[in-house]
Amino acid sequence: MATDVTRVHKNSLKRAESRTVIQINDQTRASYPAIGSYLAAKLPPEAVVTNAYVFTKVVSPTNVVIVGTAEAGTQILSAGASQTLGKTGTFTGFVNTGTGVDVYVGFSAIPTTGDFMIVVEYLEYTKTTGELTQVN
């Protein structure tokens, strides 16, 4: 019979997922004046990226959006599309942030119009909500 360790080492404590949201709209557009990569966010240490996507509310001209941990990288997201309403992009992989990681966004065209957001979801695996998962 296996030893029950469900209540040791914080195994049953709940963890909350967090999101970083990078908004591209009339108020923020001036920060992205050219085609290329931008250091747009920083993720905390001891986290793992679990999902990423582009969500477009108002379309912009054809623009491929990428998200990575290096300039022009696609370690997190490729093929986001600000010209398509709704959720787009291909989540390219789980990234362990280690001691913390920079998040770069890249555009194939200058985002001159439109309203979209780049969402990166991550789990800080050493932080807990303090609640225990209910077990029988």
Characterization of the model:
- This protein is mainly β and 136 residues long.
- The chain contains no helices and 9 strands.
- It has strands at residues 17-24, 36-43, 47-58, 64-68, 77-81, 86-88, 90-91, 101-107, 115-124.
- The strands form 2 sheets. The protein has a 5-stranded antiparallel beta sheet, with no helix packed on it. A 4-stranded antiparallel beta sheet has the order 1-9-3-6, with no helix packed on it.
- The chain is elongated.
- The model has no long low-confidence stretch (mean pLDDT 92).
Given the C-alpha coordinates, what overall shape results? elongated
Strand order of the largest sheet: 2-8-4-5-7
* Tally of alpha and pi helices: 0
Radius of gyration: 18 Å
* Average pLDDT: 92
Overall strand count: 9
- Largest sheet at a glance? 5 strands, antiparallel
SSE topology string? EEEEEEEEE
The end-to-end span amounts to: 17 Å
SS strand fraction: 35-45%
Low-confidence stretches: none
Helical coverage, percent range = under 10%
Structural category is mainly beta
